[in-house]
Amino acid sequence: MKDNTVSPTTTPNLESLRLEDSILLPEVPENGIMSKMASNVTFYEGMTEDEEDAIWESRRLGTGHHQRQLSFSLPEDMQAVNRHATDLFKSLAQRVVTTYQSRKDDLQNGQLFIAVAGGPGSGKSTLCEKVAQRVNARLEPGIAVVLPMDGFHYSRESLRKMAETEACVYTYEQLLQRRGAPWTFDHDLCAEKFKQARHHGEGSFPVYSREKSDPVPDGVQLMMTHKIVFLEGNYLLAWDDPNWSSLQGVFDEAWYVACTTLEEQRERLINRHLSNWTEEKIQMWGEGHIGAGRKADSNDVLNSAWIDHHSRKHADLIVESK
């Protein structure tokens, strides 16, 4: 049987790497707010049950694609912020429970697969964790699980070997600086493992260790007892890109999480980087807030724009924070 775990000897696809130079990013307005896809029909909170049923029916029959949007403002005082976020998580958990209970007899292996995509720092990991906790509390412990795609990063050793090949136009340091870009993930293995999970209802998946700055195999398990599966990651909805298009048939529902402004997302990324700002990163980017800002601007912000351009339009539900 083929070994599908991520290992230091995994060799990236050099052909996909060279395509990076031809990737076109959407223009980002001066105010930093990414424009919404005008071609989509957007629904807001307050939708009637009949409207909700019509959306689910159109999705089941393949007769249309609709988006529903949850937009929430964060007040200034922290107590209100926490209350606001809690209300959002409760609302999403109730949506998941209702969807699962109404569709479980028709789901493959009785499992509801929900893709939660978005750029780095958008809040998708926190959202998945909090919503899964509430689903487990409402239904039964352990019924929901989160499978992150971060574990499918190419390892540092793989990037080093890539840089040593004649076909690679980047140095190892340059590859590290763009880590997190679409071509620094093993998209083939990611798609293969998630499609196997959908088919078999179980599997073992790598996770990404921020302490090690590398993927770790077998970090999370999917079991048949897991009936609600959140698959979380940057590129899960980038279906119009050939490297990620095969994921489209994996999910029963697709969510897209985004900050309303890139400024807010950028600040979150800077704070995340500073929590693990190693000497190696100082040498690359500089010290403190300024160095972390350089890293965010040179990589994360570019990736976020690419993700928004390729993913937002495919979502059934958009969750935005302001």
From TrEMBL:
Example GO molecular function: kinase activity
Pfam families (UniProt xref): PRK
Domain of life: Eukaryota
Phosphoribulokinase/uridine kinase domain: residues covered: 113-235
Record-linked InterPro entries: P-loop_NTPase (IPR027417), PRK/URK (IPR006083)
Protein name from the UniProt record: Phosphoribulokinase/uridine kinase domain-containing protein
Organism placement in taxonomy: Eukaryota, Sar, Stramenopiles, Ochrophyta, Bacillariophyta
